[in-house]
Write a structure and sequence with these properties.
It is a single chain. The protein contains five helices and nine strands; from the N terminus they run βαβαβαββαββαββ. The chain is of the alpha/beta class. It has two domains: about 1-95, Rossmann fold (3-Layer(aba) Sandwich); about 110-140 and about 155-204, Formyl transferase, N-terminal domain (Rossmann fold). Strands 3-2-1-4-5-6-7 form a seven-stranded mixed sheet, sandwiched between helices. Strands 8-9 form a two-stranded antiparallel sheet.
Length: about 200
């Protein structure tokens, strides 16, 4: 049976679309049970609706703090009965209940533990990589814990940083890598091939 995914997003939903396309092509043993956005009216919700996927909003700014926001968010997630929670450009810190430890994944546009943490997202990451003079960057798929970009690493791969790169050109290269790496990690989870031991993730 395909695993059930809850996809959390805050924007246009390009990662969601990539997952939908991979499922449609038979490359992912998964189904998207529902999509939840932390921002109202984003295009990611429209993408979900176009594919007949239940879509809802749990808007971060409508809550006084993280605790209230996460209580509402998890009520919505649990209503979808997911096997795996997939963060797809989700811009809020998510609490990790004990029963969802190692069942929430994210992708980061750099090689963790470099160029990551609070405030390091999107173009900020690529600017930092170029300004530091790094020769390689890449993408990291990891399990989510209670800190930004901190959970056990599932997959990583690299791209070169070229002399003439701008944050935009580097982002294109990294995003192309993310589109390959993220579905690979989801499929490994679906096949039961991931084992977590401390900070290490073993692929069987």
């Amino acid at each position: 049976m395909p695993i059930r995914l809850a996809v959390l997003l805050s924007g246009s939903g390009t990662t969601l679309q990539n997952i939908i396309d991979r499922i449609d092509r038979g490359e992912l043993d998964a189904t998207v049970a529902g999509v939840i956005s932390s921002r109202p009216g984003v295009f990611g919700l429209e993408r979900a609706k176009r594919h007949g996927i239940p879509a809802s909003e749990v808007v971060r700014r409508e809550f006084s703090g993280n605790e209230a926001f996460n209580a509402a968010l998890w009520a919505e997630i649990r209503g979808l009965s997911p096997d795996l929670v997939v963060l797809a450009g989700f811009m809020s810190l998510i609490a990790v209940p004990p029963d969802f430890q190692n069942r929430i994944i994210n992708v980061h546009p750099a090689l963790i533990p470099a160029f990551c943490g609070h405030g390091m997202y999107g173009h900020h990451v690529h600017e930092a990589v170029i300004n530091y003079g790094a020769k390689i960057s890449g993408a990291t798929v990891h399990f989510v814990d209670t800190e930004y970009d901190h959970g056990p690493i599932i997959l990583q791969d690299t791209v070169p940083v070229l002399d003439g790169d701008t944050p935009e050109t580097l982002a294109e290269r990294v995003q192309a890598l993310e589109r390959e790496l993220y579905p690979q990690a989801i499929q490994l989870f679906a096949q039961g091939r991931l084992r977590v031991a401390g900070r290490r993730v073993f692929v069987h």
